[in-house]
Write a structure and sequence with these properties.
The protein is an all-alpha fold and 130 residues long. It has a single domain (2-11, 40-129), classed as Serine Threonine Protein Phosphatase 5, Tetratricopeptide repeat (Alpha Horseshoe). Helix content is 66%, strand content 0%. The chain has seven helices and no strands. The protein has helices spanning 2-13, 22-27, 42-57, 60-74, 84-97, 101-114, 121-129. Helix 3 runs parallel beside helix 5, helix 4 packs antiparallel against helix 5 and helix 6 runs antiparallel to helix 7 (121-129). The longest helix has 16 residues, at 42-57. The protein is globular, with a radius of gyration of 14 Å. The N and C termini lie far apart (29 Å).
């Protein structure tokens, strides 16, 4: 179980390597001190971890409950207060693990819309199109 959870946390580590172009690289530190860090609010991170653990344990009902909570958080009326890009990104990753590339694509797009530059979701969108 430890390796499976680690492999899915790896997707968050990719947040430290967000840039796609030289121009993105130059804009990376434009007032965003957190750009070299992996930053996600605690609530969506908790739901993501619950999803991964229950998925690994084969507890389908709990896994789906955690996924629904994460979806409700990302899709809440009025939007997310902080780091909406990363919350949508981890939800998209869950959709990929559920073999729902169509839903994943939509959430990656939502992530990019909230933070168009220096967003690892750009890479994920490209990989889904291949």
């Amino acid at each position: 179980m430890r390796n499976a959870v680690y492999l899915n946390i790896y997707i968050l580590q990719c947040e430290m390597f967000r840039t796609m172009t030289q121009e993105d690289q130059q804009l990376r530190h434009g007032g965003n001190d957190w750009m070299d860090l992996v930053v996600i609010d605690c609530v969506p991170f908790l739901y993501y971890l619950q999803y991964l653990v229950y998925r690994q344990l084969g507890q389908s009902a709990r896994k789906m409950a955690a996924l629904q909570k994460l979806r409700d958080y990302v899709c809440q009326p009025g939007g997310i207060q902080g780091h909406a890009d990363t919350a949508a990104h981890v939800l998209a990753r869950c959709c990929e693990l559920e073999n729902r590339p169509d839903a994943a694509f939509g959430y990656y797009q939502q992530s990019v819309q909230s933070f168009p530059r220096n967003n690892i979701a750009n890479w994920q969108l490209v990989s889904l199109l291949q």
